[in-house]
Write a structure and sequence with these properties.
This protein has helices spanning 10-26, 57-66, 84-91, 103-117, 122-132, 161-167, 191-196, 212-217, 221-227, 248-254, 261-268, 290-295, 310-326, and strands at residues 2-7, 37-42, 48-50, 53-55, 138-141, 148-153, 158-160, 174-180, 200-203, 232-235, 238-239, 242-243, 279-283, 299-303. By secondary structure, the chain is of the alpha/beta class. It has one domain (2-72, 108-146, 184-326): CofD-like domains (Rossmann fold, 3-Layer(aba) Sandwich), CATH 3.40.50. The chain has a 7-stranded parallel sheet, sandwiched between helices. The relative contact order is 0.14. It binds ligand FO1.
Length: 328
């Protein structure tokens, strides 16, 4: 069984970790894992250069989470982290106090940058880094070309998404999101095949605008999602009118979409109507939206979707597979 997940950072990583736990029960490989093949296509629009190294927040969150090294209280970064290097860099007046690299995290960025400078693509560098973590998934960047999400602020300035998100906590009024480099970008090797040849394609509760939205914006990706033989199931990133973490509501408002589970479904759209989804899973807190969506032709279900721990995330994955079973 081949499953493909389009993922941003924390939400997609936690969902995928739950999916793997469920698959290990349902399709065990006898060694605690699963015979199912899971491919994760990661958003790289948050990537940035800092201190001369290439930082890939979503790839790293996925790698650390699925590799068992993530700082669970944050959902990103390494466990048992220290900050000796970034503290000392500050004495040189370099870097930002609002976005710092831990010492262990820095090893990842140094390794990635070394591999890139040897001429490896981001995909090849990611394969190399992932081997150390014995990842139970194939981890693909959405593209080997640099695509960076920026925010156009009210005064027409472009601010890198990470600055807008981390430094300003999305408080700078945003006119729109701009994926710098998008037009010349191609899907990374294996991305289109992973979508076209999947038995199940999942859009997890990642940021629908700047994470999943950016992956779908890579030339050629949306068309393959629309055409894949795989059922495409989405999980709402909004619960009871609010994002579980971060400022997705502000991102949605920027593109004129309400911070409601049903509104995000409609934003993605049903494939029968030129959208990208076949089914939508929302939280029990939003069960009142089910009849309306069903009346529009959606296959929709309500289930607990808060991924507080791995069993809870496995429950979300189970609800997704139950929706897959209900598709014609
Ligand atoms: N988030 C923060 O709120 N503060 C930070 O200093 C910070 C540093 C950082 C370094 C590397 C990295 O991969 C992620 C980091 N993040 C930090 C998290 C980052 O903002 C999130 O992973 C992205 O928002 C995901 O899109």
């Amino acid at each position: 069984m081949k499953l493909t997940v389009l993922s941003g950072g924390v939400g997609g990583a936690r969902f995928t970790r739950g999916l793997l736990a469920l698959l290990a029960q349902r399709l065990p490989d006898g060694a605690g894992g699963t015979t199912a093949q899971v491919t994760v296509i990661a958003n790289t629009g948050d990537d940035l250069w800092l201190h001369g190294v290439r930082v890939c927040p979503d790839l790293d969150t996925l790698m650390y989470t699925l590799g068992g090294a993530v700082e669970e209280s944050q959902g990103w970064g390494r466990r048992d982290e220290s900050r000796r290097v970034s503290d000392d860099l500050a004495h040189y007046g370099l870097g930002w106090e609002w976005f710092t690299l831990g010492d262990l995290d820095l090893a990842t960025h140094l390794a990635r940058t070394e591999l890139l400078r040897q001429g490896l693509t981001l995909s090849a560098a990611t394969v190399h880094l992932a081997q150390r973590w014995h990842l139970p998934v194939r981890l693909l960047p959405m593209s080997d070309d640099a695509v960076e999400t920026h925010v156009e602020t009210a005064d027409g300035q472009l601010v890198h998404f990470e600055e807008w998100w981390v430094r300003w906590r999305a408080s700078l009024p945003a006119r729109r999101f701009v994926q710098v480099g998008l037009n010349g970008a191609s899907p990374a090797p294996g991305v289109l095949e992973a979508i076209a040849e999947a038995d199940v394609l999942v859009v997890p509760p990642s940021n629908a605008v700047v994470s999943v939205g950016t992956i779908l914006a890579i030339p050629g990706v949306r068309e393959v999602v629309a055409a894949t033989g795989a059922p495409v199931v989405g999980v709402s990133p909004i619960i009871a009118g609010a994002p579980v973490r971060g400022m997705l509501d502000t991102c949605l408002a920027t593109i004129g979409v309400a911070a409601e589970a049903a509104a995000v479904a409609r934003h993605y759209g049903r494939r029968a109507q030129g959208g990208v989804l076949d089914a939508w899973l929302l939280d029990t807190a939003d069960a009142d939206a089910v009849p309306g969506l069903a009346g529009e032709g959606w296959l929709v279900a309500a289930a607990p979707t808060l991924m507080t721990d791995v069993p809870a995330a496995a429950g979300v994955a189970e609800a997704v597979l139950r929706l897959v079973d209900r598709l014609p």
